[in-house]
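Aim 2, interim progress: modelling of the manganese (II) ion-bound target.
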Amino acid sequence: MRPRIGITSWLRDDSDRLERWAAVRDTYVGAIRTAGGLPIILPIADDDSGVITDCLAAVNGLVFTGGGDVAPAYYGESADVRCHEPDRERDLFEIHLARAALARRTPVLGICRGLQILNVAAGGTLYQDIGCRPGTSPLHATRGEERRKLIHAVRVLPGTRLHAIMGVAESRVTSTHHQFVKDLAPGFRATAESLEDGIVEGLEQPDRPFLVAVQWHPERMYQDHPEHLALFQALVAAAEQLRG
Ligand code: MN
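Predicted structure of the complex, ligand included:
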């Protein structure tokens, strides 16, 4: 049995808004499959009946996927006008899932919003928009076709798990985020920073079996860039190693 890797999903309206979809971009599924894991798409649920405990029991590892803004109330701020409307159901589910995964030491890979959710769930904070910190590059917040481009560069910090996984000191990456880490959660450390402006582009919890997160989108890059496939392979390997 391949290691089962849960992938967080989101809710999407049909164009006519008559139906909602529990959705995941297929690139996440493809990346986990290519890395040797069995992708398990996790639907958003409230935790009235212990669903989150059951989710964690059903998987050996987790990917927290990209998406919209986390409600600033989770890190003690009121929403800036530049903060996008949060998805309350998704926020609630993912914050609870992240805290439960942290408590259980489930191997976790966070991507973009996933990095931000992990940081907030563990007590960190975010900048609500690029404009909140003077000198921050506008290149982080690409749209449309630009999302596929390797739009800016990151420095992968030596001595980190991320560096050991990727095996490179620098990488050009995709970037689709207008929020970013302000204060790292207690026990987390930065593992990568943007070459353009020094913002946090990666984090990890060093004293855990596997908690690695990146602000870019390795699921858009893994087919052409082995150092980004390596992130998914490292998650699958940790899930394999730690399962009962
Ligand atoms: Mn970026």
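Helices lie at 26-34, 51-58, 88-104, 113-121, 161-166, 226-242. The two ends are 13 Å apart (CA to CA).
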